Amino acid sequence: MLDEAETSTPLPVIDPGGWVCPLPLRDSPTIVMAHGGGGAMSGELIEYLFLPAFGAAAQAELGDAAVVEVGDVRLAFSTDSFVVKPLVFPGGTIGELAVNGTVNDLAMVGARPLVLSTAFILEEGTELAEIARVAEALGTAAGAAGVKLVTGDTKVVDAGHGDGVFINTAGIGVVPDGVDIRPQRARPGDIVLISGDIGVHGIAVMSCREGLQFGTTVLSDTAPLNGLVAAVLATGADVHVLRDPTRGGVAATLNEIAKVAEVGVRLDERLLPIPDGVRDACGLLGLDPLYVANEGKAVAFVAPEDADRVLAAMRAHPLGSRAAIIGECVADHPGMVVARTALGGTRVVDLPAGEQLPRIC
């Protein structure tokens, strides 16, 4: 390593004392897996380390997708990285995830996805046949989602410094006129819907990773949601919020919306669409399905007068046949999510610190 005196440009001085810590990092001086789990520690890492470090260059609303105006056109832009282990799991591969994850982030702001970039980080020693399987799955998924792969990059890291294949995708889409979908629009009275069964992807990955058998095969729900969202918007309904509940599951997503909009959310656990395989697996593993990741579901907040037609539009789409109304937005307990249990009690559904099942996307 060069000393400062040996360089032509002085090395930058980084002052950790300027960061708003230590609480955000939970008293940990190093990164832990929970920082990438989509829960409280992920949010704190962004809020108290990245955003202060970025300074004025950071946009205040740093979400999964941003809407930017270019002339008279509103474009949506998103980027995501995929590090799932294993690379192939029941119902999909990291290739499908890389396309569907970014397509869905664009769809959640009402955009019509158009183009994606793809960047591969490959570990030395990985079988070419395995990379080819992932690349073919990625191409097939792009075709199914109706997007073009227009640019990309490839890097190789030393053996032992990767995990076979990591993928980053970025995407651009067009937001139609009159569409305004963002967490800040959630308001008391809104009805909360989910487009189908929850917890499927996380359990599919866990079963493959740990070699667990649950009496039935649970397949990942990875899928592009732009068609389902287009069908919902075509009804003319006043859709306030759309989110895909990936890392941290439905619980993390609803908590994030409640916090940003300063509203409360009240769920009814009896209405949650949880397939038997997921329920049984969660019971065996001591997991809560609300916190298990999904890769092909959408949560929607809609005006109460529009709830029935949004539900009908979801159920009429192949990816929404199990759609359900699961709760409502309330003025009580702003920033908090609560759930009515099957026994008639009420419990708080907190934002998780990390992810129950790490490396699921």
TrEMBL record:
Transmembrane segments: none annotated. It holds the Pfam family AIRS_C. Residues 187-333 form the PurM-like C-terminal domain. InterPro entries: HypE, PurM-like_C_dom, PurM-like_C_sf, PurM-like_N, PurM-like_N_sf. Coiled coil: none annotated. The lineage of its organism: Bacteria, Bacillati, Actinomycetota, Actinomycetes, Mycobacteriales. One of its GO terms (biological process) is protein maturation. Residues 64-175 form the PurM-like N-terminal domain. SUPFAM superfamilies: PurM C-terminal domain-like, PurM N-terminal domain-like. It comes from the Bacteria. This is Hydrogenase expression/formation protein HypE. The gene is hypE. Belongs to the HypE family.
